[in-house]
Amino acid sequence: MGSYLNFPIFIILASLLNPNIHVSGDSQPEILNIEQYLQDSPSANTRFFGGRNFNTSECTSLSPEIRSEIEDYREVVYRILETTLTGHFQGKTYDDLATFVDKFGPRVSGSDALEESITYLGQLMTEADMEDVHEEEAVTPMWLRGNESAILLSPRKESLDIRGLGFSVPTPDEGITGEVVLVRSFKEMQAMKESLAGKIVVYNSKTGEGPLHCIIGASMAAKMGAIAALARSATSYSLYSVHASVQFYDEKIPKIPVAALTLEDADMIERMLLRGENVTIHLTMTNTASSERMSRNVIGDYKGRELPEEYVMLAGHSDSWDMGEGALDDGIGPILAIEVINLLRFLNLTPRRTIRNAFFTGEEAGLYGARRYVSDHRSELDSYSAALEADFGCLRASGLLFSGSTKATCIIHEIMQLYSQMTNATSLIRVGGVPTDIYLMNRGGVPGIVLNGDDGRYFWYHHTDADTMTAMQPANLDRCLAVWASTAYIIADLNEKLPRD
Ligand SMILES: [Zn+2]
């Protein structure tokens, strides 16, 4: 069913953290009250919905006129493909992305690096001759990683590589020493609850529940009296790499420190315990949560020639997690969006509608920038034909995820036929709602499109120290640019906005 199956974390979150959200493979988004969503907790907005490969048999009613209108863009798409794959823009996205991420490194919410990178993105938009380039303030939370160590004291002494999960409380200065109890599921932990008081819980699940341990495992273990929790990294593959994201505490339960372990160490601890050995760990974490910091969304327009008050949004998020250099997540989003404008200008292509670049802050901590944007711009949502975001890297231009009406999905499918052969971007997955920053706009009725840059390895790199340019290939970035520019341009230039029903 495609690579969205690599995102069980969001699906589970959706069902567990917000029972109001219908999680299934259905493909028609319900249009919900945007006010209600703005009031949701940030955690509840970090979610992804199931989907399915789109079946074109649903498109028999697509009119010959719209098919022919799209077919007329074949020449334009050819020029875009030629310029990106073998022409003037060949390799440019890779170079510009490398310059960006090497210059600032990780851009975690609350850091100076993030704020400087936002200013830089604004400069790039100005250099791309975009109009109305401006910043809009948005508050983001701050959590700073400190020194972190986990020392295996018995059955032998060894240092284990860990990363605190986002917003984890620190340990006391002297650290925490505890005997380890290993569980593979919440159900198993419930059955062992009498033996967890004063212990360090190690979660080691290889099933779909595993990522959830990294999100709510601390509170679940604390409820049973545990003093700390360590969770197997939420990745399917590891060369001793730790994967860490934000975790969420239940405010009604005492907060205990929580960190992610490598797959290798989690498995080793399990083997030791199965042999009947006593496993003890000393854990020290000095991370700090401090007050909120004012940050900024940065926005710029490539004005439409006929309908400048109608929009197609090209989004990305400026912040990253604090590991690697945030190349896949999400340096690619802003750089690709700016590159689309540079490319269209180079080819003298000005669409009917305005293409708006919007780069949101505080995504990793809980969509803080995107929530603020929708709050301030909610009255404009009807003027959007679509919102597009690249936030699944570009290890390969696999295709698109789309959330919108059947007719609009058919139009997207027709557009993809113009470039799929040259880019291998053949997969169109229809989802009930798109993840990440454009999630809220999509729930407000705006058709949502996410560039699927996953080749099955996205979570090998995502939120690890390996999220760097070394994972990237220039030719794949060129294909992603061709897909993104063609899709955005045609949607912005069609006679009609994408139909919402
Ligand atoms: Zn991201």
TrEMBL record:
Every Peptidase M28 domain range: 297-486
Alphabetical UniProt keywords: Carboxypeptidase, Endoplasmic reticulum, Glycoprotein, Golgi apparatus, Hydrolase, Lysosome, Metal-binding, Metalloprotease, Protease, Secreted, Signal, Zinc, Zymogen
TM spans (from-to): none
Signal peptide: 1-25
InterPro entries referenced in this protein's UniProt entry, alphabetically: CPQ (IPR039866), Peptidase_M28 (IPR007484)
Keyword Lipid metabolism: no
Entry keyword annotation includes Glycoprotein: yes
Compartments in which it is found: Endoplasmic reticulum; Golgi apparatus; Lysosome; Secreted
One protein family per Pfam: Peptidase_M28
Complex formation: Homodimer. The monomeric form is inactive while the homodimer is active.
Similarity comment text for this entry: Belongs to the peptidase M28 family.
PANTHER family linked to this entry: CARBOXYPEPTIDASE Q, PROTEASE FAMILY M28 PLASMA GLUTAMATE CARBOXYPEPTIDASE-RELATED
Protein name as annotated: Carboxypeptidase Q
Species this chain originates from: Orchesella dallaii
